[in-house]
Amino acid sequence: MSRRCVRRGAGAVPGRPRHPLRPLCQAVLLIAVALGGCDPTPPQPPPAITLTAVQNGERIDTRVGQSVIVRLPANRGTGYGWDVAPNSTPDLALSSRAYVDADDGGAGVGGADLFVFTVRMRGQGNLVLVYRRAWRKREPAVRRFVVTVVTHTG
User: Fold this and answer.
1) Phi and psi torsions of 22, nearest 5°
2) Which domains does the chain have, with CATH numbers?
């Protein structure tokens, strides 16, 4: 009986043929080792920033992808409400808005307008919200909320 070696090199076993899937397994193992330090989950955005009337006139630093939540007192029963001004920064995209009733729920008590923005791009600009009656857009706002938003990458 002849001792024939099907494969030459280290680890060759005389008379034992190479398994057909072995090159594929070696490639998968090589890729797994190369990607071993990579985390397949995408990076999480920084925590949301919550603003209230107290921050009016301030500057905030944000990152692309971060959420900015603005909660301002309002009383829809009077016809007044907060709205995003046309000259507000395009760096923020309005994700959602809602009116939240006051905790005690009494009639005429009011509540808060809640805005959620997502930071879209790097830059600097003013987030401007105006308090007025929705059907009187040409009249000057009764109140204004302005914060300077400075956005950094990453």
Assistant:
1) -60, -45
2) 49-152 (2.60.40.2020)
